[in-house]
Amino acid sequence: MPTLSDSELDTQLRTTRAALKSVGALGDLYAQLLLGQEDPYPLYERMRPRGPLQRSMVGTWLVVDRALADEILRDRRFGRRTTKGEWPEGPSDFDNSFLAMDPPEHTRLRRLATPAFGPRAVAAFRPEVERACHDLLDAVDTSEPFDLMDAYAKQVPVRVIGALFGVPPEERQRFDELSRGLSLVLDGVVSLAEAKELQAAVDGMNELFGELLELRRRAPGDDLVSRLLADVDAERLTAGELVAMCGMLALAGTETTVNLIGNGTLAMLTDREQWEQLIADPELAPRAVEEAVRHDTSVLLQSRFAHQEIEIAGRRLPVDAQVVILTGACNRDPAAYADPGRFDLHRTGEPDHISFSSGIHYCLGAPLARLEGEVAFRVLVERLPGLRPAGPVVRRLSPFIRGLRAFPVTAS
């Protein structure tokens, strides 16, 4: 794929956004979603009567039904790439991470990374997560209002993922800044300046992990990079694949957990009864995590491509038809969940949410995200039971990620 000049890229971005505005003005709800919404849930409810599988004027098929979404995510006739091997999402540097691959390459790469996220490996991170949460709150002046996102939610996963990779302490700030820059791939690049910022973050993260590979060759540690270097030496993995894998895990492992903590805390502080229940019984923290990712999912959509002509939900999809699962809509499907718009710590007898996807692409880091969310909620209610909103939140207007830029709170 040829590299675009700055002027060509700027024109492409402007043209794409103008086209979405035009289609959105004609009543296409998916185009309106792609432009970014502070609250996408009303649009989901307007889409729901149009059926579980519907076509956008953008050319994409949309899923708003939880059962159908799970069926498609588990169906091997759908893949992450087109039949031509194209992955028309995100920067090309992430193309060789297993997030963007189909079997057999996906199977090979995922199998190599899986041991780092097994039950025993994840459980070993609990002291690190607890230490990070307490250290961050120790550094906050709780006698004054503070931003929960900057002071806490954004910091916990960066600390944990940095430890997972074995990022040296002197490089943690650099890793933090690059992780924030990578988040632009999820916010949706809409300007030339943002495109340049994102590419700089991608280049910087690739450089950092390249340096880390060399460091761990000289001084191996008990971290993911050191363990995967053995696979590089055994020619089961290339150095380029390892760097791409680390970049993808850094992005996915920070952004989703940041927003899990922020969205979940906001939901419970908005419905004070739920917060009080968690204070009274911190053992509900794992339930708080599951309800947080169902009620206000971090990842708003998941994309798949038909690898053959498929008839599903009464529709016939051609080869390479793109299907976008609107995760937020599916997680609030009234056919699957009672009173789906309400945050409820005591839901029982309902299907699992699909925030961590399903099938062969089920989120590899889900156990670690669950651990981080559980500990983060426990520490908050134990240390700051009087936590309350201290002003309006500032939401990200991303079509792909659901999160908060700022969340002012007070603990006094």
Walk me through this protein's architecture.
The chain is of the alpha+beta class and 412 residues long. The protein is built from 18 helices and 12 strands. The chain has helices spanning 6-25, 29-34, 41-47, 66-74, 105-113, 119-123, 126-138, 148-153, 156-165, 172-182, 184-187, 192-218, 224-233, 239-270, 272-280, 285-295, 327-330, 366-383; strands at 53-55, 61-63, 78-79, 146-147, 301-306, 310-312, 315-317, 322-326, 388-389, 394-395, 404-406, 408-410. The longest helix is centred in the middle third of the chain and has 32 residues, at 239-270.
Structural class label: alpha+beta
Number of strands: 12
The first-to-last residue Cα distance is 55 Å
Rg result: 21 Å
Number of helices: 18
Categorize the overall geometry: globular
- Helix amount: 40-55%
Beta percentage is 5-15%
Taking pLDDT < 50 over at least 5 consecutive residues as the criterion, the unreliable ranges are 90-95
Mean pLDDT score:
89
H/E element sequence: HHHEEHEHHHEHHHHHHHHHEEEEHHEEEE
Strand order of the largest sheet: 1-2-8-5-3
- Major sheet description: 5 strands, mixed
Question: Helices and strands in order, then pairings?
Answer:
Blueprint: H1 6-25, H2 29-34, H3 41-47, E1 53-55, E2 61-63, H4 66-74, E3 78-79, H5 105-113, H6 119-123, H7 126-138, E4 146-147, H8 148-153, H9 156-165, H10 172-182, H11 184-187, H12 192-218, H13 224-233, H14 239-270, H15 272-280, H16 285-295, E5 301-306, E6 310-312, E7 315-317, E8 322-326, H17 327-330, H18 366-383, E9 388-389, E10 394-395, E11 404-406, E12 408-410
Parallel strand pairs: 2-8
Antiparallel strand pairs: 1-2, 3-5, 4-12, 5-8, 6-7, 9-12, 10-11
Helix pairs in contact: 7-9, 7-18, 9-14, 10-12, 12-14, 14-15, 14-16, 14-18, 16-18
